[in-house]
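Lecture notes, continued. The same structure-token format from the folding unit now serves as the input rather than the output. Read the line below as a description of shape only.
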């Protein structure tokens, strides 16, 4: 009997497993693939995800394997510099190979004690008042108190759960792959410069000695289960650039569409959805992996509280209430970006106008904050603007704030030196620091770093400790 079974060991599933293990939850992760993907796709970790990694002590390890670049030019590939003084100590983008981040997060989960089984696919499940019985493809049955579907856009868990996946199917597709080229680099650069202003979904970028990452619009919408072949790339390269660049010897080839779909509900009883199982959208802006990892951080401590028996009655329901609107916003901004990548005259005119507007710092900043998820404010009721938002990694007397969140517990940062976590101290740490770089008397942080309370009154604090962390220990 496990507490939680997670279907899928991508970044979302692995991160969720680790978050649960911080609270001694018994976790089994089922991954249908036996081996990691053979291709090396570079993914982006945005500011908010980098902050979350810092909160769990993972960032230094991850930085060793990635490449940093400025946090600008994300929105619809409109080249603008990052706004000055973004509200984060980690205001950059980290490009990292997807197999590497997958491995690092899986390693983090296993180091914390999560059990991970590869080559195990979920074939069915039944839930009752006490838990969920999960049937594997080999006929084995496993029992848990909760089941979480982190099994991708074609999620078996979501389909068996009968949750609607609403939105638009793919209207366009893009081919992506890595291959060798047969022409000099300066010829590639010249063709790119000639065509890239119009065709934003077309590029060739060096990816090693003689190897290029090639992206080009597909001729139409095909079967996602069928990978493209080299001839598909050659035809589209010739159609757009007038040459196929002599591409040959592909390492891997794939296609992605612009389907934009969102699960109606993230929870049905004891079964929940996270990551691509709950939402899919075009990769424009590089938000997909980040959105899933942030789902895991929101859900992990809440589900652990439910299992440990101290969760307030509605705490687990706040997962859908908080994360579903965030996904809606991401889907909307990717829809807008895809329109701006169109070669049609109307979208191109709007793109030129937006490019001008982004010269205003406020516009540029708003779009960067949206893409990097540092603009999120959960609805915690009336209060100062910081209430419901994440708190940046400020300096405190013990070093940096995020260093105090490695255990996945709540944190009371008290500048008054009069407050206490009291009977909630088994779930909430307390730091009395009158010199903390914070223009507020005291704040209560949830384990995901969002500000749950601001003030200086112990009675009011106790009410909010009870709201987020359940009944006090007597």
């Amino acid at each position: 009997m496990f507490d939680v079974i997670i279907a899928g060991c991508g970044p979302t599933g692995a991160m969720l497993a680790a978050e649960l293990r911080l609270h001694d939850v018994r976790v089994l992760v089922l991954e249908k693939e036996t081996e990691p993907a053979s291709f090396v796709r570079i993914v982006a970790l945005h500011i908010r995800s980098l902050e979350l990694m810092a909160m769990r002590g993972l960032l230094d390890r991850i930085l060793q394997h990635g490449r940093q670049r400025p946090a600008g030019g994300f929105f619809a590939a409109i080249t603008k510099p990052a706004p000055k003084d973004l509200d984060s100590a980690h205001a950059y983008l980290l490009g990292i190979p997807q197999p590497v981040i997958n491995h690092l997060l899986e390693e983090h989960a296993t180091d914390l004690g999560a059990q991970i089984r590869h080559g195990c696919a979920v074939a069915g499940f039944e839930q009752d008042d006490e838990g969920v019985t999960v049937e594997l493809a080999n006929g084995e049955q496993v029992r848990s108190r909760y089941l979480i579907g982190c099994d991708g856009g074609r999620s078996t868990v979501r389909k068996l759960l009968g949750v609607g996946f609403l939105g638009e199917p793919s209207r366009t597709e893009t081919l992506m792959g890595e291959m060798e080229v047969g022409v000099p680099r300066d010829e590639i650069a010249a063709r790119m410069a000639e065509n890239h202003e119009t065709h934003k979904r077309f590029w060739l970028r060096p990816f090693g000695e003689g190897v290029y990452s090639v992206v080009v619009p597909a001729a139409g919408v095909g079967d996602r289960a069928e990978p493209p072949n080299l001839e598909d790339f050659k035809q589209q390269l010739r159609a757009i650039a007038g040459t196929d660049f002599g591409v040959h010897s592909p390492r891997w080839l794939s296609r992605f569409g612009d389907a934009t779909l969102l699960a109606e509900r993230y929870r049905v009883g004891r079964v929940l959805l996270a990551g691509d199982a709950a939402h899919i959208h075009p990769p424009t802006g590089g938000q997909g992996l980040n959105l899933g990892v942030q789902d895991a951080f929101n859900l992990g401590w809440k589900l652990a509280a439910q299992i440990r028996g101290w969760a307030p009655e509605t705490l687990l329901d706040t997962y859908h209430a908080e994360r579903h609107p965030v996904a809606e916003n991401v889907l909307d901004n990717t829809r807008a970006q895809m329109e701006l990548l169109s070669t049609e005259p109307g979208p191109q005119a709007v793109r030129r106008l937006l490019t001008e507007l982004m010269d205003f710092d406020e516009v540029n900043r708003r779009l960067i904050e949206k893409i990097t998820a540092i603009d999120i404010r959960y609805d915690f009721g009336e209060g100062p603007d910081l209430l419901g938002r994440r708190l940046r990694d400020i300096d405190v007397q013990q070093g940096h704030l995020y260093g105090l969140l490695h255990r996945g517990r709540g944190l009371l940062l008290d500048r008054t030196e009069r407050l206490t976590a009291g009977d909630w101290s088994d779930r909430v740490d307390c730091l009395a620091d009158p010199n903390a770089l914070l223009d507020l008397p005291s704040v209560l942080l949830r384990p995901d770093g969002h500000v749950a309370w601001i003030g200086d009154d112990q009675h009011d604090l106790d009410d909010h400790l009870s709201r987020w962390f359940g009944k006090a220990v007597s």
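Point for the exam: The first helix runs from residue 11 to 21.
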